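RETRY 2/3 - previous attempt timed out on the joint model. Re-submitting the same 525-residue input unchanged.
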Amino acid sequence: MNDEIYRELILEEYKRPKNKGRLAKATHESACKNPLCGDELAVTLLVRNGIMHDIKFEGVGCAISQASASLFTEHIKGKTVEAIGKMDEKVILELLGIDLNPMRMKCAVLIMRCVAAALEEKR
Amino acid sequence: MNADMRRGMHIKDDFPLLKKGLHYLDNAATTQKPRAVIEAVKRFYETENATVHRGLYPLSVKATERFERARGVVAEFIGAPTENVIFTSGTTDSINLVAQALPLKKGDEILLTPHEHHANIVPWQELAKRTGAKVVWCDLNENLTLDVDDLQRKLSKKTKVLAISHVSNVLGIVNPLDRIIPHAREHGTFVLVDGAQAVQHLDVNVRKLDCDAYAFSGHKLYGPTGIGVLYLKSLTLAPARTGGDMIDDVTEQEARFAEGAPRRFEAGTPNLAGIAGLAAAINYLRGVRMGNIHANEENLLRQTWDALKQFPRVRLLGPAPGQVMRAGILTFTIDRVPPHDLAELLARRGVCIRAGKHCAHPLHHRLGLHEGTNRVSFGIYNDGEDVEQLVEGVIQAMDVFR
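RETRY 2/3 succeeded.
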């Protein structure tokens, strides 16, 4: 099927993304770009006692990057920073539920890179 | 099916890579190769390979003859004298070669247009940094053509270089060089024309254009990668590539460069196989006849434009074909369909188009197109079916991204 990649889940997350916006009170933040696509993401995190209490993202980009951001931010809420640090691309692929070529993988993992960058920065 | 469509299908047979079901519409990025070009490269390595200008044995003598004959083929193709045609590794290399050789100084100006590809921007920015010269940009009209009045206003005695594309790689607009270059000449400006998107669509005569330099690539002209051309009107430019072949004599302290052109501009062993392929590509195009090529591409461009403009969500960039001269390129966005996702969906039905900013960040930023755009670019082998599949793919994408 041609539009398998854009199954309902991804389109839903793209059109109505979860966690879109900016946290009023944030302990970490970062901005990332995907030079291939022109995808841009900015994240604000609220971390307390080593746990990801809340996270929001802003930005523009292709459906894959936006859907992935929505799914990943939802996935890591309530998890420990340690557990998040151990996550890799496989998590993203599982959340999206599709196969991606290496070029589009960059779109999909942008949110993960952004969160990692934010966690490394100290406010 | 009309005669042009039939012609397109016949030409497709000459291109081994274009199997059924592949609708290749990214020719501005690179073109597919006819068997004649592939054979020429293969034949070169199988029976003709030797260095040029050096060997005394028949293989090398023949290689040298063929090499210079190929230069003649290229020269005739662009209406240039043979010794003014220099082989490079591509358009980008050609432009770098000129930018590295021009003796600018602080206060000099380099005039660029928003139509330029990064290859015709970054080398000039670097030249400006090195010399203290200043980069100046002209404006666009509302319909995205160059504001020629503004360009002419910005030309002054200080303008040492005008770097301008013959055809915009994003908009496909053919720039009115016949109006622009004479003005630049009045100010003593060095005019370099980026012809990367022109030579495969238009008849180019560099003497008529009266530019100081003209650059293009073989791989966009149905020839091999790694080979390009730089036409230089005046051969007094300093050689930017130094080493073997372009010297008369070398001591431990210094070298005496060759006097004659194009030899003094071609250091090292040229891309001989690439040159063989390029000559074969030009001869192939001769066989197809440029007139037919233009007509077919214009037809396909018009068909595609007319088909896509029906959809309110599709925004076509630039003026319609017929309003302004355009060459085989069509760029657009679709509301609520991100460019890379459209390209992805089209790819899955065998349609190859480009998404992104097409190495033209300044243009996209000027137009506020931060997500990028989709570009369709036609080649000599495209036909009505390619257009059909493209349009159906667009419809599908608009449905998926309701």
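The longest helix of chain A spans residues 63-76. Closing ticket.
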